[in-house]
User: Fold these one by one.
Assistant:
Number 1:
Amino acid sequence: MNNKEFINELSKQTNQPVGTTTKLINDTLKVLEEHFLQDDAVCITSFGTFEVKKKMERVSVNPTTGKRYLIPPKLVLGFRQSNVLKEKFNAE
Amino acid sequence: MGKIFLNNIAEELAAKSDIANGVADDFLRLFVETIEKGLQEDGIVKIKGLGAFKLAEMGERSSVDVNTGERIVIKGHTKVTFTPDSAMKELINRPFAHFEPTELNDAFPADEASVESEDEAEENECVEEVEDVKDVKDVAEIVEGVSEEVVATEEVEVVEEVVPAVESAEDSIDEHIEAVAQESVEESSEQPAEASVVEVTPISELYADDAVQLPQAEAVAGDEPVEIEEASASSPNEVQSQPQAQGKKRRGCGCVLFILLLLCSAGALYYWYTLKKQSYQDMMEEHSDIVVNPNLQEVLGAEWGNEVLKVDVTIDSVETQSEPTITATTTTTTTTVSEVDDVMLEDLDTIVPVNMIPVKEVNPVVKVDASFLAIPKSLSEKDIRDITIADTTDYVIGGTLTTHKLKNGETLIMLARKYYGDKRLWPYIVKYNHIADFNKVAIGMTVNIPELHLVED
């Protein structure tokens, strides 16, 4: 299911025109982004948790050239599924 | 940083999009449900601006129960994974966006040096010291142009090299005196070193963050590499208490000062050596009428080799009674040398076996040592005669004691040691048997061992 299919499906579910749904989705994402930038963990019950995690810097070696690189630290958005979601997909 | 729930998001969304709270709430719930539905249908849901949700099959794997420590098997299962798309990724990582991967040099250790353990640091220091000791030798060799025995800084080396040096007959006495003297100087200078190191430690602890303080204290301690080792051996403790960056800087500073110290000590050694040599030459000129038998020098040389070993033994007792007030200069060094010699004399008296010859004649060599080092100018002719020992000056031959048939591997020196307890008396055997070339004696030759009587002065 790609983005278009997702929007169509969602608009069908909400009985809203596609344009409105798209706008609402974008607004939702903006709200989420604001929280991510504040290092908030967004917990969606029975679905999972979005969390920004800091990956520490590390030294990486290119196996072919043998050169060593210092990979800088970075912030990564991670998702952890809730147990409810897990059971939903492992029921059968 | 806190935990935000879906209703919080709904409230904000309502405010943002001008819709009722309930509508926003419903929308978000449907949003999540649609993702789940999509996952169930296709196994993958892509949302532009957020990322992709995917179903991933996790294989079976073994693990350990956190509470009981038992090995358990986690069954294979399906897991929902999320990969943020590039737009979201960049947005999240914006605070660190200016960082870029940098290639590291092979020489690297900048980071590792600060992380490395205390043991490693200590080891490195030891290696540096060993190298520097070698440097001392090199520098000294170049500057002084002296044979290796003289510059040897370690006991073992001195012992090893002194013995072969017996072969060089002409300079052997001079060199061995120097070698032994240096030996004893080093040993004796260890005393002040130890004493001053005790003083050093509290100072450097007080000024733990002052990098210059310790090397200065080392400078006070004196000029010999031995004590530098000791002083720097105490330094890791101080390094421990410091920030690692400062430790690095401090080590660099210490290295420079250490090298300076080495140069100073090399200079001092050179000066001291030339002084000694000069005084010895003067003395030899004064007593030039005395002819020293080169063979006797050989014997003496061999004796010196033994002497060094004995010095090692006696040093321990000297160190135990060392005075903590000594502060290591050349003058104190000479005094301690004579102390060492005194003790050495006493010890030798007990060490040398007293059987066939009077005790009085046992230690002329040691007398030479003491007089050469302590009062080189005021040597009497009696002392000089002691150097030449064995020849007819002190003993007269009085008939045949016994005879001996030479076997393979035996030497006249061995005979002298066997029958007189003193290998220096071999010339009497040569004289009594009228041996033409004492370097060539035949196997099976019957040697008459003369009976020796001491000449009373």
Number 2:
Amino acid sequence: MQGLATDNAPSPGVVVPHFIFASISFFVVVVLMLLSASSFTGYFFEPHLLAITHAAVLGFGTMIIFGALYQLIPVIFETALYSEKLAKVTFWTFGIAVVMMVYTFWNNQFSTLLVYSASLTFIALMMFLFNIVASTRRATKKTFLSNFITFATYWLGLTALIALIIALNYKFNFLNQSHLLYLKMHAHMGMAGWFLLLVMGAAATLIPMFLVSHQMNENKLKYAFYFVNAGLFLLESDWLFLHGSVMLPVWGLMIGAGIFFFLSYVRESYKKRLRKNLDVGMKHTMIAVLFMILPVFLGIIASISGLNFDQKIYWRIIMLYGFSIIFFFITSIILGQTYKTIPFIIWLVKYKSFVGKTKTPLPKDLYSEKIADIQLYSYIASIPFLLGGILAGSEITFNIGAALLLITAILYNMNVFKIVFHKSRIETKL
Amino acid sequence: MKTSEEIKAIESQIWNILKFVIDPEVEVNIVDMGLIYRVEYDGDKTVHIEMTLSTPACPIGDAIVLNVQEAIKNKFPDFEVDVNLVFDPPWSPDMVSEEGKVLLGL
């Protein structure tokens, strides 16, 4: 029997800790958010905001993507992960680095601790990069989709490198341009290079698989890949060499065009789907996909130099731009895809040896659908309050949204822990 | 050795057994999903199954294959079940039975 993705699947001990760390991080992120509503209605370069952002993108987003990617590598590349041991070492190094970094930002330790936490993060990310590149090199199957994963990983490496340079600059002050310029480069590499490309590559496999849609137009994904990479490369080069020219909105439009082709691919998958009823996982995913449009619009608006916004309005646009990427796009897709990955991983561990011999529960029976439903509703309810709070500069409105998001985080954690610590319903009967 | 009628009757029983094997993601049995291409009983103790998955990337593909083997062995403990997983021709929605379409809400 050949060609099965599960033949090369990593052991659950490699994957599961990432999901636990990430779900706790999400809870911590929302608690920190509730403690710092004022940070979301002011200037974006602020210690608490940086702490929350990094807890979200590293502790929650990147951590869970690492876990999911270790599981996805055999699916996409038809090869086993290069080293499970390295993946475990990476997990611990990265986990410690993230905690250190969030502590550093939260306590405003830019000139002291930042260089150490950034260095440790850099080491962890390089170990991850090595493991992925080494795995993909020995892949037996290389499809166009694998380019998304490979390029996303390279962009992640560059994101970490710029972060390290920024951190070193705080201590040794050697850069001749404002650190804000490098911060923009760092943030966009992370968001468009790492998250966007990675999500596009993974979603292009997972969405048609879970919606059961066939005969998709793969050319759309090629255009998406080239437009995002070319737009991002030109954007980064513009900042690095021209320090931000009038061409910035054009590079933004190129990335936007890439997103358009990806959206068109998802729409096609949705229209051709055989599975008509969307579960919570896919509803969250669709919300995330729809929310890809907002940051493209805001980013392009913010980069048009001739618009001369009032400073307060400009800050709010920038805030909403970053916030919508992290909390509407990345968060929603993760909240959804968690239900499409971790129940299957645990189900295989607990029930694979019993299938066919006795009646086994389904993967979806490992979590409470009711909790997942309320999680989705509280998440949807939080969106207008969070959006409105930032736009209107209203801390009360923002806090209502954050409180609703806290409900989402608690329910999400309840279900993740319910899945991870699921006790087999069969063993006791045998 | 069994007669051709007996062979056909056992093959038909196996098709019915496989109707109880569910694809956990879509929650529809693999026969109505059109995942079983061929069931062939040799008249002695071997059953050959040719089947596919809705996608080669299916994360629980081997659990489905295992389920096929175990479900048949449950009813015919002495049988050897040889499952040949193929992706050519690739599965397509046209292969879903009328009953499967109803189960999928189409």
